[in-house]
C-alpha cells in the first residue's frame, strides 16, 4: 500500500513537472496569423479560449508536437499542437471537438491591426439585454477595485457593476446594455481606464499584461481595439477646463472648444495614417464622438453665463452647436456625450431665466382654450403668458439679489400685463372654471412641462430619429422624477411622439413598473407620520422641538430631502444597507423630512427603496411647514443631514452621509454608546 502511494505521488510530481515545462513553453498570448485575432492564451493555472477561462486537465508536450486537454464545467476540449521547427513562437493548433477540426496557424506576438472593413455593424436599435465582460489582470491582487460603468440614456442613473476579482486576477461581469452602449472598464488601483462599445449578446474578454498592453477577444474585439487605441491617442490632447469659461465670452469659449476639436481631428488623421487598415466604422465613430463631446463642452458655458446681466448665447454660437449635433448617427446609445449635450441644449432654451415657474392659472387657461372649453382672446392669452414670465423674472431678481434699479428696469415690460392677468384670474368666471376643471389641471401641467422640455428640439436641424430618441429620454425622466404612473392622456401624448415601437416600449414598461409600485403595500406603515398634530404650532422652534420630542434619549440622524432632488435620491440608495448594519442599535433613529414632494411620488419612492423600518420616521412636510423649518435651521441645500443628541440638541451639522457607509455607521454607534455610558454614569448612585 505504501509503495502504491509513493508511486502515485511520483507520477503526480512528474506530471506537474511536465505541465510546468509545457506552460513555460506555451505561456503567453497566441494570435491567428491570418487574421491577427487573439485566439489563445496559456498561463500557469488556466487558459483563455473561445472567450472564456478554461482549466488544464492534461499537458503533454514533445519537441515538435503536443496535446493540451482543457476543461470548462462539463465541457472538454483537446488541443493538438505542432510547433514549426526551430521556431517556438510559431505553431498550429487543431481543436478536437468533433466533426472536421480546423487548424489555426498561430504566432506568439501581440495582435496587430488588420484590415477591418468587415467589422460587424453596430446595432442601430434599442434592444435591452446584457453583455458579458471577462478580464484577467494578473498584477491585480485586490478582490475589489474593478468598476464597470454602463451609461444608459433611458435609465435614471448609470449602471455600475463591481465584479469580484479572484485570487488569480480574473473577473466576470454581466453588464446591462441598451443597443450599442459605451461601457467604461476602470481599475483605478492599476491605472486601467478602457472604453468599450458592447451590444446585447456580446462577450468581450480582455487581458492586460504588465507592460500595459491590452488583448481583446470576441466578436467586437477588432472594433474595440481600434476605439481603445483612438481614445489613447486622443488623451494626449488636454481638455479645456470649462471653469475657464466664466472668464470668457461665449464666442471666446467657442474658439477654445473648436481649437480643441481641430487638434483632436489632427490626432485622428495621424492615427489613420499610422494604421492604414483602420476601419471606416471606427474612424467615423471616433470623429462623431469628439464632435458631440465638443457640443456638450460648448453648452457647459450656459452654467457660467453672466446671470445678473441675463446673458444669452449669440446665434453664431448656437449655429455651431447645431452643426455638431447634426453629425450624430445611430446608434445614438453608443455616444455617452450625446444625451448630455441634448439635455444642456434643451435646458438652456426652456429655462431662459435663472428661476422659472409654471403658474397654475396659465396652465388652466391653456387647457381650457386648447380643448375648446373656454375661449380666451389673444390679448388675454398673451397677458397670462407674460404673467408667468413676470413671476419667473421676479423670482430670478430675488435670487440674484437685484437692486431697486434692476427691479424697475427688468419688471417694466411685465407690470401692465400682470395687472390685467391678475384681474382675469381673480374674476368669478375664472374661479368657477378652475373649480370645475381642477382634476384636469395636474394632467395638463404634466403635458405642458413635457411640451416645454421638447419644444427646443424644433430649433435643431437634426434627424427626426434623434429627436424621437431624446423625446423618449425626456418622457422617461419625467416618469422617474414623478415616481408615479402617468394619466392615460399623457401616455397617449407620449405614444403620438414616439413612433418607434422600441422607444415607446421603454415608456410602457416604466409606466407598468410604477403602476405595480402604486398598488404595492408599504412595509412598516407605522414609520409614516402625519403632520395634523403639528399644524397648530406657530413657532418654528416649538415645531422642531415637537417633532423631536418622542425621540428624547436617542440619537437622531435627520435627513432633509425631496423626491425632486437627484443627489437626495442617490444618497437614499445607500440607506437600506446602512440601517441593516445598525439593526441591533435601538438608540438610533433615522428621521426623514421630505419637502416639496408630491404625496404619491413620496410614498412610491419609500416603497421602491424599502426606506421604512423599525427605527425610521418619515414626514412629508406641507410647503409652509417645510419652509418654516428650513429657515429656522438654516437649511441651504438638499440633502442636508443633522445629528441630534439624546437631549434634543444639535450635535453635528455636517455628519457623514449615507453613502459614507461604514464611516457613518461607526460614527452613529460611537455616539449611541457614548450616550448610554453617560446615562449609566448619571444613574449610578
Describe this structure in words.
By secondary structure, the protein is of the alpha+beta class. Among the domains are: 2-107; 128-219, Sandwich (Immunoglobulin-like), CATH 2.60.40.1120; 242-350; 525-683, Glutaredoxin, CATH 3.40.30.10. It is 44% helix and 20% strand. The protein has 21 helices and 21 strands. A hairpin with a 7-residue loop joins strand 7 (87-96) and strand 8. 32% of the residues are buried. Residues 9-21 and 679-685 have low confidence and may be disordered.
Fold topology:
Blueprint lengths: L1 H25 L1 E5 L5 E5 L4 E3 L2 E10 L3 E8 L2 E10 L2 E10 L7 E4 L20 E9 L9 E5 L8 E3 L8 E9 L2 E7 L4 E7 L4 E6 L5 E4 L3 H14 L15 H25 L5 H20 L15 H11 L10 H15 L9 H11 L7 H22 L4 H8 L3 H11 L2 H9 L1 H17 L9 H19 L5 H10 L3 H18 L21 H9 L6 E7 L4 H7 L2 H7 L6 E8 L3 H10 L7 E6 L1 H10 L7 E5 L5 E3 L9 H22 L2
Parallel strand pairs: 9-15, 17-18, 18-19
Antiparallel strand pairs: 1-2, 1-8, 2-3, 3-4, 4-5, 5-6, 6-7, 7-8, 9-12, 10-11, 10-13, 13-14, 15-16, 17-20, 20-21
Helix pairs in contact: 2-4, 3-4, 4-5, 4-6, 7-8, 7-12, 8-9, 8-10, 12-13, 13-15, 16-20
What's this, in brief?
The protein is an alpha+beta fold and 685 residues long. The chain contains 21 helices and 21 strands. Helix content is 44%, strand content 20%.
